User: Which sequence fits this backbone?
């Protein structure tokens, strides 16, 4: 029912405009904060707080800015408690609504639900705010307009939050406009729904409410909108800036080395591709220089990691300075103690000049606290297109040259040389292949007989490893065992040899001994004794039929550990032989301290330059040593009858060599009938 008594309500148009502006600004802030909140990054709670505060203050301020200019035609008093409650409703309702709208999970209705809650809190704020206005006479409401006002508050709010969560590019702007629409439409329709009763004729229409209240309200609104929206905006901008800084930091992290600030490997790759492309187009040349700090590990170990870091930083800075301003010059840290420099060689300066400059800047000593160190580096260089026609080969070749520089005590700068560095390359390729050899079944064993000199009877067989490489054919153990040791692949490979040889030998008839070579690396690693124990248990080979062969070098690498391992192995009943005696230290010490069962005289004894008489004397010396320490003596590398005669003359009981049999596949030994295999 409409009641329209005499007094006419009126709005100050200027303040309506201000209210709309406040509303738009607040809606803009609210939408941005909400977007940040739902970005799924951290500090969601803080962003929710800001969103709710901005939204609540926007609703409230829009309402009261308009009220400031509202001239109901009667005297009006503000109830401050209710005014404050209306603000709390706006903020709390917004918080609940935005929290719902950001709802996680599969339910697609969260934004609409949240929007509805926001819309309802706009209306609740409005009507509570209206009851805060005490005016004389009766107040009544046009119920249809009230319903319309609530609807006009809720629908745009629902749409606003649906838009916000739509993921569209304009989500934030859509939300801003719809949210502002919700607040404005709700408010003005709500105002229109109010009717107030009679009686106050003669009121000064120019005084909407008493001056004091008006000022207080104006100040409250100004402070609140300014502080909330303003502070929020500043936060938003700062956050945006922080994000930009963070992004830049990520970018640097991806392209730059943290310690030295130099470009990293990824940058180098990009740059190298560009420079090679450029060199191709201009028919120019490009030098790639690998710089590796010498003894870096030592610096780290002796003076601590901070000192090592400092050295890298200083050297990096010096090289960076050198490349600065030079067209096309570039320096990157590859990680560890390795740097790579690029320089165009089409200018007036050649590679040598650039490398000399590098050496010059690297040379000055570096102060580390009270001490100083004199840095040294090994430098390898390769030139496109002289030494490589693609980036990868260029890097590899410069690397190979650097390795040569590192291992050469006389030169610390080397330029790639195909004939010198080719060997290193093939070694590297080979060690990659060796990694696969076990899995691909390319390894197998040959066996060489060990013979009793007097009777010519077999005593046992030595297992010798062979590698059938798919492209290169049969590769000698002298070539690949050192590789396997460098890469520690010898540990699994050695275990495989042991297992295979024992599994084979357990079926031999007669039950001859089997000898297996053990490398220094296997001896250093813990677990050799366990491997031996496991293999014996698995294969069922009696321990006394197994003998491990090792060189002096191997046992001296880690004497204490080797001694413990040998004693453990011997305690199982396994034999131990000292291999290649006469080429190493040939120290009595080895014989005295290690519990060997057998000494194997190296074949160089017989192929050497000594007269037969000297050879006999040498053998006799070893034999008497053997007697002293209770060890059998076996002569290796016996190829001729003359050598055999010398052995007999010297009184050596055991021999091995081509004369008795070459290392042979077991199938072939079986064919000779020397050995049979139980099924
Ligand atoms: P080694 O233990 O001294 O093995 C004896 C080497 O001398 C074998 O070379 C054998 O073929 C060779 N040889 C035997 N009799 C004669 C002869 O009358 N004259 C000449 N000139 N040579 C003879 P191979 O098989 O090439 O093995 C070379 C080395 O590779 C071995 O020397 C051993 O140190 C290492 N090796 C072989 N198999 C293994 C293994 O399974 N594990 C480890 N760790 N090392 C192994
Ligand atoms: Ca051997
Ligand atoms: Ca040997």
Assistant:
């Amino acid at each position: 029912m409409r009641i329209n008594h005499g007094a006419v309500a009126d709005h100050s148009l200027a303040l309506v405009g201000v209210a709309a502006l406040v509303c738009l600004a607040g809606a803009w802030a609210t939408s941005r904060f909400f977007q940040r909140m739902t970005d799924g990054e951290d500090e969601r709670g803080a962003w929710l707080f800001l969103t709710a505060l901005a939204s609540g203050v926007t609703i409230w301020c829009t309402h009261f800015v308009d009220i400031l200019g509202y001239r109901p035609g009667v005297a009006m008093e503000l109830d401050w408690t209710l005014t404050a409650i209306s603000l709390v409703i706006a903020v709390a309702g917004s918080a609940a609504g935005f929290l719902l709208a950001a709802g996680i999970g599969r339910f697609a209705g969260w934004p609409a639900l949240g929007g509805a809650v926001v819309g309802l809190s706009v209306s609740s704020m409005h009507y509570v705010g209206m009851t805060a206005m005490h005016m004389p006479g009766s107040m009544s409401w046009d119920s249809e307009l009230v319903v319309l006002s609530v609807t006009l508050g809720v629908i745009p709010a629902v749409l606003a939050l649906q838009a916000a969560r739509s993921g569209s590019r304009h989500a934030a702007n859509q939300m801003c406009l719809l949210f502002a629409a919700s607040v404005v439409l709700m408010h003005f329709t709500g105002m229109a729904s109010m009717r107030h009763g009679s009686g106050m004729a003669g009121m000064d229409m120019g005084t909407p409410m008493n001056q004091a209240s008006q000022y207080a309200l104006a100040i409250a609104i100004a402070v609140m909108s300014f502080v909330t929206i303003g502070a929020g905006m500043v936060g938003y901008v700062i956050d945006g800036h922080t994000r930009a800084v963070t992004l830049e930091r990520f970018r640097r992290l991806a392209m730059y080395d943290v310690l030295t600030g130099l470009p990293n490997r990824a940058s180098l790759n990009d740059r190298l591709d560009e420079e090679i492309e450029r060199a191709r187009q201009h028919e120019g040349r490009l030098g790639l220089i690998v710089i590796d700090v010498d003894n870096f590990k030592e610096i780290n170990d002796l003076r601590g990691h901070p000192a090592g870091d400092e050295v890298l930083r200083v050297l990096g800075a010096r090289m960076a300075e050198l490349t600065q301003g030079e067209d096309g010059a570039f320096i990157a840290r590859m990680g560890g103690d390795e740097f790579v420099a690029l320089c165009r060689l089409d200018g007036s300066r050649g590679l040598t000049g650039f490398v000399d400059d590098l050496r010059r800047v690297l040379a000055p000593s570096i102060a580390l606290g009270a001490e100083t160190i004199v840095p040294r580096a090994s430098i390898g260089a390769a030139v496109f297109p002289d030494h490589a026609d693609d980036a990868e080969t260029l890097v590899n070749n410069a690397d190979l040259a650097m390795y040569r520089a590192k291992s050469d005590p006389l030169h610390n700068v080397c330029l790639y040389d195909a004939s010198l560095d080719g060997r290193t390359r093939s070694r590297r390729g080979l060690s990659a292949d060796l990694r696969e050899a076990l899995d691909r079944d390319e390894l197998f064993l040959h066996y060489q007989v060990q013979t009793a000199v007097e009777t010519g009877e077999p005593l046992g067989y030595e297992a010798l490893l062979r590698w059938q490489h798919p492209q290169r054919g049969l590769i000698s153990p002298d070539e690949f065992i050192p590789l396997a040791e460098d890469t520690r692949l010898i540990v699994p490979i050695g275990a495989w040899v042991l297992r295979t040889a024992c599994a084979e030998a357990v079926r031999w008839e007669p039950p001859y001994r089997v000898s297996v070579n053990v490398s220094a690396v296997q001896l250093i690693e813990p677990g050799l004794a366990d491997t031996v124990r496991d293999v014996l248990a698995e294969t069922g080979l009696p321990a006394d039929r197994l003998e491990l062969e090792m060189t002096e070098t191997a046992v001296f690498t880690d004497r204490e550990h080797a001694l413990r391992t040998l004693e453990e192995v011997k305690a199982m009943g396994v034999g131990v032989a000292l291999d290649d005696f006469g080429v190493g230290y040939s120290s009595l010490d080895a014989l005295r301290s290690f519990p060997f069962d057998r000494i194997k005289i190296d074949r160089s004894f017989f192929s050497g330059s000594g007269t037969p008489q000297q050879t006999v004397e040498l053998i006799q010396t070893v034999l008497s040593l053997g007697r002293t320490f209770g060890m059998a003596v076996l002569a290796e590398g016996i190829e001729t009858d003359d050598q055999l005669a010398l052995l007999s003359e010297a009184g050596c009981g055991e021999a091995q060599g081509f004369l008795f049999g070459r290392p042979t596949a077991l199938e072939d030994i079986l064919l000779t009938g020397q050995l049979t295999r139980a099924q």
Summary: The mean pLDDT is 86. Residues 579-580, 600, 602, 636 surround calcium ion (ligand 3) (CB under 6 Å). Residues 211-255 form the longest helix (45 residues).
